[in-house]
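Lab manual, section 2.4: Encoding a predicted structure.

Procedure: take the sequence of the chain (414 residues), apply the prediction step described in section 2.3, and record the output as structure tokens. A sample record is shown.
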Amino acid sequence: MGGARRNHAAINLSLNKPSPLNKPSLNMNAPRNMNAPTTQKILFLDRDLPLTRPHSRIFSIFSSRNGIFSPLERTRRQAPGAQFFLFHPNAVYENHMASSEGLTSYRAAGHDPQLAHAYLAGQTAGLTACFDQIVDSSSCDPVAILRDLGARFDADAALAIAEKNLRPLETLPAETWCLGAPRHIYGAPDVEIQPGTLFDTRQGPILLDAGARIGRLSSLQGPLYIGAHSQIDNAQLHGGLVVGQHCRLGGEVEASVINDYSNKHHAGFIGHSLLGRWVNIGALATTSDLKNNYGEVRLSAPADFAPVGSPPPPLLTLNSGQIKLGSIIGDCVKVAIGLRLNAGTVLDSGSNLFGEPVPKYLPPFTWGNGNQRYDATRFIRDCTAIFARRQQPPPPGLAALLTLYEQNRSEPVE
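Recorded output:
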């Protein structure tokens, strides 16, 4: 991996100062566009940013959570009945992902790719004239998501409470406690809260979605969202945290976004990190989210869309502008027991990480911690078995996606 770490001009990802986490009160009168006229044409425009790729190779970046909701779910709730289009610089990927996410391919609909490329270059007038709304993938940048999670949480919480039948907890279950007001705990009717649970709403609300199960001896601090049918067991969850649906969490987790069907069920620490869908973190695996010298955390990511080949393509060095930043872990990544991830580690999609040292950047579909590729047939077989345990089908067209990356196609396809 050392040969791939060439020096490049650093890219600054910090646009604003970090947003503070919310106080307990929610603005329930915040605009939700629930009664607004339906937007007719909405474009999801994927810029193919280096740090969004770990969450956009197997699934669309727009179905990955950048708050309580993903951009796709949020927009569909706010604009039901609208027609949704997807653009990606790579035409093959655009067509595949549009089909799998129930969107219309921008190119297949007859739109001019040059208008989209002009928009990416800063000439926005032509494309904005064609659509009522453009949802830009810059809102899915992992550093920005974690930095601005407090502000996003407040707006999303108002929408979630209104649409998901979440109601304030009037009385605490027996042998549970709350620091702060229990009325800032919102739950679905079928939430299970076991004895020994400690809530803390002094810094923000706690939202428990349908079928969530909070196991004994867990500590939950707001602002916090627990997705539908997720299971929390003997965990310490610190505020500024979003947990997707069907997740299983234990140990200590802080100020992170964990997407659907991901597991971190044992001891270990995850902090200021973004985990994709179908991630598994082994027992005692731990992320660092602060450098010993309190310096800015820098990340590495490939310049190319498909970073495969020999030698591997060069990596970009990206400045986060943050001193508190953990790991970016892509979709379908497995992390073996006991591994230690330094601040700013990026594990790209589909990798099975074991062995030390853990590299600063691990390419997609890597087997181990080096240059060995995860055999495509084995990866598909493993995904099929893992998804079946949760009664879910594997991602559609997975073999075709793997072929696309192996082709190492880095130039935009018109």
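Check your result against the sample. Residues 149-163 form the longest helix (15 residues).
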